Amino acid sequence: MARSFWRRIRKHLGLFPLYLLVAGGTTGAVAYGVRTALQNPDVQWNRRNPAISNEEYRAKQYKFYSPTLDYSELESPAPLYQEL
Question: Superkingdom of the source (predicted)?
């Protein structure tokens, strides 16, 4: 299969940027999905831990990019669930 891929690329050099962009987009989408699944506070993988996961992210930055806000200095407006 790899041999036929390289033969096709040599015959049609205009397809090479298309293959690169598709591979880059696929890699970026998979990387973003994995990052969201592992670092988003709405996703909880450990069900045996009784602690509420929102308390861990009270002062952490979990958004992908925020040029204006510094989450280390921002106090969360969410209520403390352990005090309720």
Answer: Eukaryota
